[in-house]
Design brief:
about 250 residues, alpha/beta, TIM Barrel, eight-stranded parallel beta barrel, 8 strands, globular, binds 2-phosphoglycolic acid
């Protein structure tokens, strides 16, 4: 089964509405040209509605970087799946390491968010990855497999591999310029696919997309994307400029 590659821009806490408009206007024709690649933009809440409005009927998949798993209620500061769907949002990052490390999101919360996204019809991009200390201590797989298992446990049996995306993002590679080698990225992502095969079977494992994230840039993208199990990228810094992100889209196609 051929998996469709995905190149995803994670703007993090960047861009005003005006900047988002200019970017989206420039991205839409480039996404249209990117044959066979899903192009997604994960915008801050403040401009996500505008991105979604502009992206309607285009090849750009509008997304946000977080949400909460209840539909409504006394959850000050949070945004729910129905609110996102109302804006035309189609995808959401779940469990980014910055959410886990800075804002204290637990494996349990991440798993509940992933399951809720799927059941709401949002495509979750679920992030997993180890710290430098964990890698150096030989605990990379213990950390990553634990994160993956906790998410999969929460998913209904009916959920298919095409309903969810994983992103392996070693924390030491995020925003540091220090990319994992293509071999290390392939090793981790191949293991994640193997684990998903054990947990959910062959069809799920062959259809689920697993991205790499962590200091992807135009200079290293082609080599990373060429790895057998790597189905695309989740890009922070190098996605902020639309020209640089367009180069990454090309590398994935
Ligand atoms: P980076 O961020 O490309 O700036 O390393 C990736 C991410 O955090 O998703």
């Amino acid at each position: 089964m051929a998996r469709r590659p995905m190149m995803a821009a994670n703007w993090k806490m960047n861009k005003t509405v005006r900047e988002a408009q200019d970017y989206t206007a420039a991205l839409i024709p480039r996404a249209a040209d990117a044959e066979g690649v899903d192009v997604a933009v994960f915008a801050p809440f403040t401009c996500a509605g505008e991105v979604a409005r502009m992206a309607e009927d285009s090849a750009v998949i509008p997304g946000v970087q977080n949400f909460f798993y209840e539909d409504s209620g006394a959850f000050t500061g949070e945004v729910s799946a129905p609110m996102l769907l109302d804006l035309g949002i189609q995808a959401v990052i779940v469990g980014h390491s910055e959410r886990r490390e800075i804002f204290g999101e637990s494996d349990e919360m991440v798993a509940r968010k992933a399951a809720k996204a799927v059941s709401s019809g949002l495509l979750p991009v679920v992030c997993v990855g180890e710290t430098k200390e964990e890698r150096d201590a030989g605990n990379m797989w213990e950390k990553v497999s634990g994160q993956v298992c906790r998410v999969v446990e929460e998913l209904d049996d009916s959920v298919g591999g095409e309903d969810i995306v994983f992103a392996y993002e070693p924390i030491w590679a995020i925003g540091t310029g220090d990319t994992a080698t293509p071999e290390d990225a392939q090793d981790a992502i191949g293991k994640i696919r193997g684990l998903l095969r054990e947990l959910r079977g062959e069809e799920f494992a062959e259809s689920v997309r697993i991205l790499y994230g962590g200091s992807i840039k135009p200079e290293n993208a082609a080599e990373i994307m060429a790895q057998e199990d790597i189905d695309g990228g989740l890009v922070g810094g190098a996605s902020l400029d639309v020209g640089s992100f367009a180069e990454l889209i090309k590398a994935a196609s």
